[in-house]
Write a structure and sequence with these properties.
Length: about 80
């Protein structure tokens, strides 16, 4: 699974991140915290700058993970033929 190490690191450190950085954005590469920023754009740009083209996890430090639901047909990702 992509970003498995990064996700595991984030979950292991979520409580301590919440104490000091709730609402801010973190970048994790492997099992290393690359940095913490105030907004998503800054976190992404600096994360890529620090790691090059490597995979990074960019996450906002929140108590509850946001849920995103997007039906594939609505987004046009999956197309089903129409039978009349």
């Amino acid at each position: 699974m992509p970003l498995e190490k990064e996700r595991a690191w984030f979950e292991q450190h979520r409580a301590e991140l919440l104490e000091q950085h709730e609402g801010r954005w973190v970048v994790v590469h492997g099992e290393t915290l690359v940095g913490i920023w105030d907004n998503l754009e800054q976190a992404y740009i600096e994360g890529v700058r620090a790691t090059g083209q490597e995979e990074i996890l960019v996450r906002q430090v929140t108590r509850i993970d946001p849920t995103f639901s997007a039906p594939a047909l609505t987004l046009g990702i999956l197309r089903a033929p129409l039978y009349l």
